Amino acid sequence: MSDHSGLSIENLSIAFDGGQKIAVNGVSLRVAMGEAVGLVGESGSGKSLTSRAALGLLPKKSTASGQIRVGRHSILGMSPGQLRAVRGAGIAMVFQDPMSSLNPVARIGDSITQVIRSHGDVSEGDAFARAVGLMERVGIRDAKARAASFPHEFSGGMRQRIMIAMALAAKPAILVADEPTTALDVIVQKNILTLLDDLRREEGMGLLLVSHDLAVVASLCSRIAVMYAGQIVEEGPTKDILLHPRMPYTVGLLASTRRDKSAARLMSIPGAPPPLGDRAKGCRFAPRCPLAIDVCRAGAVSLAEVSPGHTARCIRTADVQSMNLESFSLMQREVAHG
Amino acid sequence: MAEPLLRVEGISKSYAPRRGFFSAPAPNLRPALASASFELSKGEILGVVGESGSGKTTLARCVALLERADSGRIIFKGEDLTVLSEPQLRKRRRGIQTVFQDPYASLNPTIRIGDALGEVMLVHGLATRQTLRESVGALLRQVGLPVAAADAYPKAFSGGQRQRICIARALAAQPDILIADEPVSSLDVSVQAQVVNLILDLKDRLGLSVIFIGHDLQLIDFIAPRVLVMLAGEIVETIPADRSIADARHEYTRALIQAVPKLETVTG
Amino acid sequence: MSDAPISLMPVRPGVAWLSKGNWSLRVGIASFVLILLAAIFAPLITAYDPILIDLANALKAPSLAHPMGTDHLGRDVLTRVIYAARIDLQIGAIGVALPLIIGTILGLVAGYYGGWVDAVIGRIVDVIIAFPFLVLVIAIVAMLGPGLLNLYIALTIVSWVLYTRIIRAETIALKKREYVLAARNLGFGHLRIMFRHILPNAIPPALVFAMSDFALDVQVGATLSFFGMGAQPPAPEWGLMIAESRSMMLTAPWTVVGPGLAIVIVSLVVSLIGDGFADKVRRLDE
Question: What pTM was computed for the model?
Fold first, then answer.
């Protein structure tokens, strides 16, 4: 990986209330060109904040520290004008709800044309032709005729394709997709995921896919980072994460996606993530973790390499490894029953 | 054979298209629900799976009589509910309760949780003012929430907690049937499992009958022995308890199974 | 139970900010309370009588004894301005309360039941809204005769329609909400659903509007009194005071400055409350 391409987030922290409430805590993440990386976590884990920060989108009343680089550009501290320039060709984003990001009274073709023209000196006619081309590229049939339609005339899946077409308008090096399929039906979801995968391979883009669904992320990404309570708690190649998870939270996430009909109940992680501002000073997962011991609660735990390219934020990685999913979840159920 | 708790016979529902004053009358539209029939026994859990627009939510609302079906019969405890007037129906409504998909829209933001639960019991005479606090506490404990939740407003709760509260509110009416209309679709995967397990526990403990609606066939298959597959307003396949979804016959059902991303395909 | 009980958790980190820094609401309410207290305790604030004529002291310029001077009948202007708040605030309050109550109920009913009920109420609203507001108020008072009671009747007839429109629109949106569906599903009666489950969520925009309506009613009341159609002499009322002193406006300007300022200040204060309240409602919605 070259130092001057792709997306690199170094030690990113985002805080609210003048630094009182730290929502994202020292997150480091890299997405190389042509690579798909998944960022997984529950709502409130900080995954969306992190991915939005990569585009310079920070909530009001928040402060960010650390470094975010897109290609040669350093995103944090950029002026709005500079950000606009980077956002087109450097990095672009697809959100969960396409309807709220599309202008309801503008024809789709015109919306996409506008995006293309805002990123380069192109004539109206050329830009429109490229807009139609992009619509075809993302699998909208009869694109020329459909360009005259309004957003409400499209289905949810088609709208998401349009959003992807817009994101592609300036040929971004990195595409960030934040829960792009969460609002969609499974068959449509599969089509959108396939489209994103094709685009990444054919255009050589880097893809950062953010989702609460480990299975969605695993189907597309070669690396996965798991976030919990503002921190990355485990990161590594997809196969390692799925087959040899070394952080109990990841194990719990995996367990809760299992649909084992021989069991009477689904496996789940008891309890809920800690709220902002009330996070344990030791391992943040310790209150819900069946393996937690006093050392876990004593002080901050750092990410440590467990195998090449695979890091986990856990003191007891060795013990996690020696257990299989079932026994782990059984233990959790016992914890739950007190 | 004994009469089942609920028998739905050929209910259909179409929505009149909204017409402008000047536009021509619209041609007959595809019905939202076309002649759906099924039975539900006491203590049974029935799965309904389909994508958006398949008519599964219309089915749920018609069975709960939140919308009147255009035709067909809904026989609950031997009585056809579709012929009842609104006042007659009101007294019988508590027997069939619904948990909706969106936990953020399902709770009235101006009413404390304890009052929302208590109101149900008072209206139906299921508790007295003296025993109310205790009954509310029991309901909250039953869904795994602390009794102190009674004093808080909905905004204090996460999506998963709200869905527990919605379940508690439904239980407050002491229903025979719980219709769970995509109760976990808007929750994180890890929280989904908690809510699903809660519904299964309650079914076992209270002998509830449950209609569990969703779009995730794998999840529905785990929860429900018998599964109805819906497409474009019709029940296209019923997968009986003794058959696995892997043997589904309808090509749409198979497409649904294939579309769900599975961890096993990645790990081999 | 498969899962341990979980703790109460504030989910959205933004919620804590809401209580802070609603500057306009606080200043507005504080000022309004001050004005209200002044009106109620007027006899404690000023030693003069608002009505008693004292020709010996007529048209005195402002001094320590009479901070706003005296009018052509020798009455202390400040005293009359303070006492007038009793009538003018009453015009605002009654002019808002009656339409708010009537309009809200009709809006709820129209939005909730729809169908022919909605159609009938909707047509009446359309007809009343078609008339210019002030013209209709003046026409009604002219027909019924001058006086405060008839002013209240006119304000009520004319302005309930705006509350009906607001509440009807909110009700139509809210009745599709899941919590209202749940209330129906639970077998609650229509009245309970309308007043307990829909109304508290539908009312905030109507209350925001009521604030600007209050200011408008005070102004309309003063205007009609100015033309002799509202409060009658010798009652202290801001519009009436300006009317009585308008011939002396150039020689004794202090006689009109006081009541004029009072109208402006009350309108401002009420607008502040409305703004602050709207802000609060908007932020709670997020």
Answer: 0.88
Chain A contact present for C13, CB below 8 A: yes
Q: How confident is the model at residue A184 (pLDDT cuts 50, 70, 90)?
A: confident
Please give the pLDDT value at position C15. Answer: 38
Count H helices, E strands: chain B?
9, 10
Q: What is the domain partition of chain B in residue ranges?
A: 6-13+29-106+176-262
When pLDDT is averaged across residues C137-163 and rounded to a whole number, the result is: 95
Cβ–Cβ below 8 Å for A272 and C9:
yes
**What is the CATH T-level fold of the domain C24-42+77-285, as seen in this structure?**
MetI-like fold (1.10.3720)
How many CB atoms lie under 10 A from the CB of residue B122? 16
Q: Is C201 on the interface with B (CB under 8 A)?
A: yes
Rounded CA-CA distance A296/A289 in Å is: 10
**What one-character-per-residue DSSP string does C180-204 give?**
HHHHHHTT--HHHIIIIIIHHHHHH
C190 vs C138: CA distance, rounded Å: 39
**What fold, for B6-13+29-106+176-262?**
Rossmann fold (3.40.50)
**Low-confidence winner among A96-105, A215-224, B42-51 (lowest mean pLDDT):** A96-105
Range of the domain at A111: 7-221
The Cα of C18 is separated from the nearest Cα of chain A by a number of Å equal to 12
Give residue B124's pLDDT.
Answer: 95
Q: Do A308 and A209 belong together in one domain?
A: no
The predicted model gives A190-195 an average pLDDT of 92
Task: Work out the average pLDDT over B45-65.
Answer: 94
Amino acid making up residue A184? L
C17 at A interface, C-beta within 8 A: yes
Residue C8 near chain A (CB below 8 Å): no
Q: Is the pLDDT of residue B22 over 60?
A: no
Shortest alpha-carbon distance between residue C14 and chain A (Å): 9
Task: Verify that A273 and A176 share a domain, yes or no.
Answer: no
What number is the ipTM of this complex? Answer: 0.92
**At A284, phi and psi to the nearest 5?**
-75, -15
pLDDT tens-place string over residues C123-149: 999 999 999 999 999 999 999 999 999
- Taking only Cα atoms into account, the Rg of chain A, rounded to an integer number of angstroms, comes to 21
Number of Cα atoms under 13 Å in the Cβ half of residue B194: 27
| Chain C residues lying within 8 Å of B66, measured CB to CB | 181, 184-185
**Sign of the dihedral defined by the CA atoms of residues A60, A63, A68, A72, in that order:** positive
